[in-house]
Design brief:
With 691 residues, this protein is an alpha/beta fold. The chain has 27 helices and 21 strands. Strands 2-1-3-4-5-6-7 form a seven-stranded mixed beta sheet, with helices on both faces. The longest helix is centred in the last third of the chain and has 20 residues.
Length: 691
């Protein structure tokens, strides 16, 4: 056939209002680098991340093979591009690959019938399966015969259609044990075009997951074994990224499924630290940390000094639920026992919970959150359970067994109007109830998740929460009172909470088709553009709350004040201490995102050295940190804080959904104000009974 074979590889993100997914397209970069290694000049490969760029390329110069990644956040736009390219060039071979694909054969057959535009699906890791497709394509006599040639036989590692449309299965291909056989997409230059000041570099140090969680697409037995890239290669990629990354990009993404769980991960962290010292990059690292071997994780990330947070992905603390989701091989108790050691190491802790898992009840979910609050997690993230096509939970058997009630909702920011006029939206299926959890309970628990998420956030309310714990006052009870007494809140907070719960209800639809049909209407589509519809409810209202953080601070302080009076009504010292703690929280949380934030600094007088008390890990009480004389404290943003926050905000845009995405990338120690003495003097403190 005529050569070179023109191949377009895409890992698409929406950017209609802001970037939906900001990671470098490393996945298709691996496939491209492996193909170029195998076939050299016989192939001509172009990589795509942005929808408009691929739209233009498909119309101006349609490819011989269009291959796209398939995730829950880009499935429907992938389908539309396949449909589009077939109208332009019917001979184009359309290939899909990725985890958003059913694991049982009946569901796979149904999936392929729903997406007739797809000629071949590459499952599991894509390099070998896609290589096999290209090898057959290069055997065709002409580009007009390419598709018929490829589809004339089963392809190892793929599911394809024959000429009649019948699916062809073949033997699964083995996974690569030595991942260094795949050339680096960075060092071969394939990633250079994506250092554009918008996307965040991503690396991978290993592949595979030893766990079998039924809600996860990586819970399959086929990916149980862990395979590694060499440490030398990882260090080389970090060095390359450091020389290329734009000055306004401060993050690094690690795509490993259990980073930090393996001994070698500490050496990866050492390479990251070397890059930080040499290039002042990255300032923060996003990674999913491991589920077991928490001691190793602590050791691995201590050196990153706050750049990476430890994620305790407990999902549920209920033993029955853990058995239901095949997660009983992960020691939640052992995970939680390490919380004090983690804090002593100076690391922040995040915990991940899923609402709506099989067998979960209102009370068991509340108990999970209570246990995590009492374990003093710095941040508790509560997600609605998603039904991912590539997971065991989404199979017909599992759906029938657990009687899960599901609805559909728009994935935030994942929408666009293509050049053909079609408005495309991505949709996810979520669990909103079951035989053990009613819908109204689901809605109320979503509100509790918002209260906990905002109020338990790391630095800003840490003084209050530590003060309550120090005086044996249950912090979870404070959060629960905020839920149950929400009608007593101020008009501003009441309006925000009403908007939140209404949005929780309004985001749900009966089918993907209903959603897509509704938003073909121009007026309804404009609501997506303005942020009136299709939002991430938790993150959007987090952004709204952060933009109005002073109001939320006053709400929590008012509830805390009433709660405290019940416990310590006659203790004047306690009341004066609470007053100072309240002012410290006011100072930290004041006007974090306003345009005038550099000039609106608050100043308070303090009789206690609250900063030293916060740093103390020996449980010495606040009254032991009384100052010999009061000092005045300013709450400011440093130049570094302002630059990093503003650069991130500028990258994503000005809409509420854009601010929400930016906040997910900003470390808490950069977001909140820094307390400094007004005269920069260091007061002498009297600390009693230190021995």
């Amino acid at each position: 056939m005529m050569r070179p074979l023109k191949i377009y590889l895409g890992d698409l993100t929406y950017d209609t209002t802001s970037l939906s997914t900001d990671a470098f397209p490393l996945n298709v970069g691996y496939i491209a680098s492996y193909c170029l290694k195998e076939f050299g000049t016989d192939v001509e490969i172009s990589l795509f991340k942005y929808i408009t760029e691929l739209d233009k390329a498909v119309h101006e110069s349609p490819p011989d093979i269009l291959a796209l990644s398939n995730y829950c956040w880009n499935q429907r736009v992938g389908q539309e591009f396949f449909s589009m390219v077939k109208k332009i060039n019917p001979n184009t071979l359309c290939v899909w690959g990725g985890p958003n694909f059913p694991i049982d054969i009946p569901s796979q057959e149904k999936f392929m019938s729903e997406f007739p535009e797809v000629d071949v699906y590459v499952s599991i890791e894509g390099e070998i399966g896609f290589r096999n497709i290209v090898e057959i394509a290069l055997q065709s006599k002409s580009k007009h015969e390419l598709k018929d040639k490829v589809l004339s036989q089963p392809i190892d590692g793929c599911i394809s259609r024959d000429k009649t449309g019948k699916l062809q299965y073949s033997i699964p291909v083995g996974r690569k044990n030595n991942l260094d056989e795949i050339p680096s997409p960075y060092k071969t230059g394939l990633m250079d075009k994506f250092f554009d000041g918008r996307l965040t570099p991503m690396i991978q140090t290993n592949r595979g997951c030893p766990f079998s969680c039924t809600f996860c697409t990586d819970g399959q037995d086929t990916v149980r074994k862990i395979n590694n890239f060499s440490l030398e290669r990882i260090a080389g990629e970090l060095e390359y990224i450091g020389t290329k990354v734009a000055k306004n990009i401060h993050g690094l993404i690690i795509s490993d499924l259990n980073f930090g769980m393996y001994t070698r991960d500490s050496q990866v962290c050492d390479s990251i630290v070397d890059t930080q010292k040499k290039y002042d990059y990255p300032h923060y690292v996003s990674a999913s940390t491991g589920k077991n071997s928490q001691e190793k994780i602590i050791t691995a990330i201590e050196s990153l000094k706050g750049s990476l947070q430890l994620m305790m992905a407990v999902q549920s603390m209920d033993n029955e639920v853990l058995v239901n989701i095949r997660r009983d091989n992960i020691s939640v108790d052992r995970m939680m026992e390490l919380a004090p050691a983690i804090k002593k190491s100076g690391l922040n802790t995040k915990s991940e919970v899923i609402l709506g898992l099989p067998g979960e009840t209102y009370q068991s979910h509340v108990n999970t959150i209570r246990d995590l609050v009492r374990a003093q997690m710095d941040e508790i993230l509560i997600f609605t359970c998603m039904m991912l096509p590539g997971s065991e939970m989404a199979t017909p058997e599992s759906r029938k067994k657990w009687k899960l009630n599901t609805k559909f909702r728009i994935l935030p920011r994942d929408f666009a109007q293509l050049s053909n006029g079609k408005k495309v939206l991505e949709v996810e299926e979520v669990v909103i109830g079951s035989t053990t959890l009613s819908f109204e309970e689901y809605v109320e628990l979503r509100l509790l998740s918002f209260i906990v998420f905002i109020t338990n956030r790391e630095i800003v309310y840490t003084p209050l929460l530590k003060f309550l714990r120090e005086n044996n006052i249950d912090v979870f009870e404070l959060f629960f009172r905020m839920l149950k007494q929400i009608k007593t809140a101020s008009m501003e907070i009441g309006k925000m909470v009403t908007g939140y719960t209404q949005s929780v209800r309004d985001e749900l639809w009966d089918s993907p088709e209903e959603i897509e049909a509704h938003f073909q209407n121009e007026n309804e589509y404009k609501k997506l553009l303005t942020g009136e519809a299709g939002i991430n409810v938790l993150n959007n209202f987090r952004a709204i709350c952060t933009l109005n953080m002073d109001d939320w601070t006053e709400y929590i302080l008012s509830i805390a004040n009433d709660f405290i009076r019940e416990k310590k009504s006659s203790d004047e010292t306690f009341s004066s201490q609470f007053h100072e703690i309240a002012n410290f929280c006011r100072g930290l949380s004041h006007n974090p995102l306003g345009k005038d934030r550099l000039s609106t600094n608050l100043k308070f007088e303090f009789h206690y050295d609250i900063q030293s008390w916060l740093r103390d890990t020996t449980n010495i009480k606040l009254d032991q940190f009384m100052l010999q004389s009061p000092n005045m404290m300013n709450f400011i943003f440093t130049d570094e804080q302002y630059k990093i926050v503003q650069d991130t905000l500028d990258t994503y845009g000005k809409s509420i959904s854009s601010v929400a995405l930016a906040l997910a990338r900003i470390s808490s120690h950069m977001l909140w104000r820094t307390p400094i003495l007004s005269d920069q003097a260091i007061s002498t403190i009297t600390v009693k009974n230190l021995s």
